[in-house]
Write a structure and sequence with these properties.
With 263 residues, the protein is mainly beta. It contains two helices and twelve strands. The two termini are 28 Å apart.
Length: 263
């Protein structure tokens, strides 16, 4: 694991290189950073910034943090950046993603409301529980909030550009804020306390829905979805899959006796 001075030196070298090359992408992931590099906020042309284990591009392709650096998660203080995010007005992709066992302390999104062009945001494996700062980010298309402390998605109600949303392993139970999201194509609710999919009945673009290990009992509201291609509903209380959905369900509600749900 690189020491803080080593990680800081690598970060500054990458920032300097980006200042010269202006590629628009900066990877500062897994450098063991504990303080924000002041030079970062001078890169007002940046469109992609990775501060986590990797980042997802607009096509949902994942890029791990640059190889060659021993794994050392950043522990940057969110509060110190609140008034600085507005210096990166062109940012479209931002990753704060942690990893299993990190114990990521990132719990505050304040300041992100000043990133009007943001399209992709990865919050997975962080301590985030409040999405309020995202409520005005109307260009947001991809949001990964899996493995967080999230329970309330009402701040997403007006983000109609959302097309990929991962809520897996959260405390989210109410999907009503998503009922007016015509662009939503992928919704992952694996291992959540969701009980009803009724709010999803009017989503014209939804093609993949993961309800594995939820408390959903009735899939009937989904029969009206014209684009649905994949339905995952293993380990749920669902007794019967509507006939029109059987061909879409790639996993039965009740797997063979003796099998236990994955963690």
């Amino acid at each position: 694991m690189p020491s803080a001075p080593e990680g800081s030196a690598i970060a500054r070298a990458r920032i300097l290189r980006e200042q010269e090359r202006r590629t628009g992408t900066l990877d500062l992931g897994d450098l063991g950073l504990t303080e924000w590099p002041n030079e970062l906020w001078e890169l007002n042309h940046l469109s992609c910034l990775n501060l986590g284990v990797g980042w997802t591009d607009a096509a949902n392709g994942f890029h791990p943090a640059s190889p060659g650096i021993p794994y050392a998660p950043n522990t940057l203080p969110p509060a110190a950046a609140r008034e600085l995010w507005n210096r990166l007005p062109n940012l479209q992709i931002l990753s704060l993603a942690g990893a299993r066992g990190d114990g990521s302390a990132w719990d505050d999104l304040a300041g992100l409301e000043s990133l009007p062009q943001l399209r992709v945001l990865d919050l997975s494996w962080t301590s985030v529980e409040d999405l309020a700062p995202l409520a005005s980010l109307t260009y947001l298309e991809v949001l990964d909030a899996s493995y967080t402390f999230l329970s309330d998605i009402r701040p997403l109600a007006r983000l109609s550009a959302l097309r990929h949303l991962d809520l897996s392993h959260t405390k989210v139970a109410d999907l009503a804020p998503l009922q007016d999201h015509p662009a939503l194509q992928v919704l992952l609710c694996y291992h959540t306390p969701v009980t009803t999919v009724a709010p999803l009945s009017g989503l014209p673009a939804l093609r993949k829905l993961d309800l594995t290990q939820t408390q959903v009992t009735d899939l009937e509201p989904l029969i009206t979805l014209p684009a649905l291609e994949t339905l995952l509903c293993a380990w749920t209380p669902v007794e019967t899959i509507p006939e029109s959905l059987v061909r879409l369900a790639s996993s039965a509600p009740h797997p063979p006796t003796g099998q236990t749900p994955p963690p």
